[in-house]
Amino acid sequence: MEEPQQDDLLELEETLELQELVARVLASRGRDAAAVLPRYKQIMIKYQEQPQLLDGCLEGVVQPLAALLRDHAAAAAPPPGAGGAHPGTRAAAAEVGAVCGVCRLLHVLVTVRGHKTVVRFFPHEAADLERVLQVLLAVRAGAESAGQGDAAAASSGAHDDAALAAWEAQGVLLLWLSILVLTPFDLRTVDSSVGAAAPAGGVTPLAARIVELCQGYLDHPGAAREMAALLLARLLTRPDMRPALEGFLGWQAATLAAAHPAKLQFLLPGVLQARAQGRVRAALHAGWGAALAWHRCCGCGAADVFE
């Protein structure tokens, strides 16, 4: 019988250690997330060259962490209609802190393995959509009130670790929203601000808020901009979001025309990324009719659909 190689034994030891780190986070309900992060990240970074080697343990790491994140999101979400302003109680602030801690662990996995692989293990129930949006707004509001609203400064170390944690959490929550909006459901059914007599053809306040929020991320370099562009592309290619698509395209034209050159260098890549992902998604998933409609709205010709 062939002896196990030293590399195989090391990989097994690290897999077991990862499971122990995750178990510690779960047992503490996320309070130990910051404590385990350095070692957790140290193990994960080793797999950057061959991230597929993580696939064997990916489900066992992502699913329990994502489930814990969902629990904290439910507890941390401000009441519907609060506009993203957090109540400010100690308990609520602790829940938002736990959200950020768990998101940081998931962010490491997204960085190493890629968001397409990791997000498959996230919860994707339609009922989570409004809740996750409210938590994202709470995290964003908390970061802005603490003077942590600059993604570039946070990533460069100009702010403390809390700023980086807030931005990584926003990126993960935007990614989660991007998978939730793919679920085939009527957005009116999960929007608490919509009454029974809401017009069938209009854009719900919930969807409009997501679009507005994503637009605000497009001039921030980093993962949050990338995830916001992805979320926009997925949301605006839904069959029921044509009015919102036209509104977004009007916004981008006006905003790009008025932007200062210093801001434009960050905003333009975000806008182009959202448009490019929307074009691909429209062509691959929504059929030729929707794809051509997207391209006409974007000012692109039919010949550009598959460029």
From TrEMBL:
| Protein name per the record | Uncharacterized protein
| MF-aspect GO terms | beta-tubulin binding; GTPase activator activity
Pfam families for the chain: ARM_TBCD
Organism from which the protein derives = Monoraphidium neglectum
Q: Report the record's Gene Ontology biological process terms.
A: microtubule cytoskeleton organization; post-chaperonin tubulin folding pathway; tubulin complex assembly
